[in-house]
Write a structure and sequence with these properties.
By secondary structure, this protein is mainly alpha-helical. The chain folds into two domains: 145 residues, no CATH class; 52 residues, no CATH class. 48% of the residues lie in helices and 6% in strands. The chain contains nine helices and six strands. Strands 1-2 form a two-stranded antiparallel ribbon. A two-stranded antiparallel sheet has the order 3-4. A two-stranded antiparallel ribbon has the order 5-6. Strand 1 and strand 2 form a beta hairpin.
């Protein structure tokens, strides 16, 4: 059987075809403005799977390509429109130049509970668990490797850099401040346990669009 993941009538890549390649599919999300993005945990999972496949079949990073590189299709769209995201993903697949015995041992460790996770990654892993994006098995075991955790942290940092979060009304951009304040005054938007709004640009845009639609329907 052949997986039909990169077929086309015409090809950009001289060699890569359905029959001699392995495809990894990722789910993307759509923003209010119609653009697409990939969740950090999805990127981390794809990187972990890619590294496993690379190790099993002796594939180097030069032979890891996008759908776009094979056929010219704008896929994955976020990684075509922003090559830096693709470069960051490839960097996650690049093996270390040297490893110590201790590092090799770390690569074999599995973290089964949040308490097992190293301190530097606990906040990120806990956030993904609280959001329901990371779930354990029927016994509650999350079964994470060190590489998976590193991928999650890198993805989270990248997402934070791409989409800043606003903690107070003064942090909110001027074009959104008045309507955000109205939502706060009405009790529709409340802070977290620390009193922070903790809203992203996408959340702001969605809230304002909904607010304007409600105002028009009055």
């Amino acid at each position: 059987d052949t997986a039909w993941h990169c077929g086309a009538r015409a090809y950009w890549h001289p060699e890569c075809r359905n029959a001699n390649s392995i495809g990894i599919e990722m789910c993307s999300r759509k923003r209010a403005d119609g653009s697409y993005y990939i969740l950090p945990e999805t990127v981390a999972n794809a990187a972990a799977l890619a590294k496993d496949i690379m190790q099993r079949y002796g594939i180097d990073t030069e032979h890891v390509v996008r759908h776009y590189d094979v056929t010219g299709k704008r896929c994955p769209m976020p990684w075509v429109d922003d090559p830096a995201q693709w470069a960051a993903f490839k960097d996650m697949l690049t093996p270390k130049n040297t490893t110590t015995d201790e590092e090799d041992e770390d690569d074999m460790v599995r973290y089964n509970t949040i308490d097992d996770v190293p301190d530097w990654a606990q906040d990120t892993v806990r956030m993904l668990m609280d959001a329901g994006a990371l779930q354990g098995d029927e016994h509650g075991c999350i079964d994470l490797s060190r590489d998976m955790i590193r991928g999650m942290v890198i993805g989270k940092r990248y997402a934070d850099a791409r989409s800043p979060r606003y903690a107070t009304i003064d942090d909110v951009p001027g074009w959104a401040r008045e309507e955000t304040q109205r939502l706060i005054d009405r009790g529709a938007l409340k802070g977290n346990a620390h009193g922070e709004l903790d809203v992203s640009m996408d959340m702001l845009r969605t809230m304002i669009v909904c607010q304007r639609m409600m105002d028009e329907n009055k």
